[in-house]
Amino acid sequence: MKKIALYIVSLLTITTLNSQATNLAIDISNDVLSVEAGSKNFSQDNEFSVAMLHADDVHLYSLKGLVTGVLEQNKNLEAALGGKAYVIRFFGENIQGLGLGGELNYKIPMNDKFQLHGSVYYAPSPTLSDDLDYLTDLTITASYQLLINGTVYINYRNIQVNQALGGDLKMDNGFNLGLKFLF
Predict the structure, then answer these.
(1) What is the pTM assigned to this prediction?
(2) CA distance 164 to 158
């Protein structure tokens, strides 16, 4: 019951913080629930989003800001560059960090309802709290626009930190099934 209340409060917080949201993505696996609300309404060629990811021992919150644009050479390929701020509670430890990275979104030319999306963010030691060497955040998504304002997707997500004195700590590593709603 405590977890359900935490999920509801987190979801309400995310949607309230971003009342200008143009999309809401929710994905799940056996171990993880992730919710992201995003908007491209603030200004042209910019994207902002807030997200949360919850598992048994991981509570990750992030705020992302990107500049976006369609590549001149290929109108089906959209690129984005920017940063992602993290606040993470992982096995009782509090971690804060700032990662830089980018995203690519490719609409399949034969059927633009199919899309491939990838994102990579990297936070080196100077931008992280605690004795951590780096944080990596990788997501690869395949989606299909089922409705005008609804998409189904499957993604592979790998978020991990490398400790200065030990090995990698995986916060999320696996496949997720999700829905994305457009407003």
Answers:
(1) 0.87
(2) 19
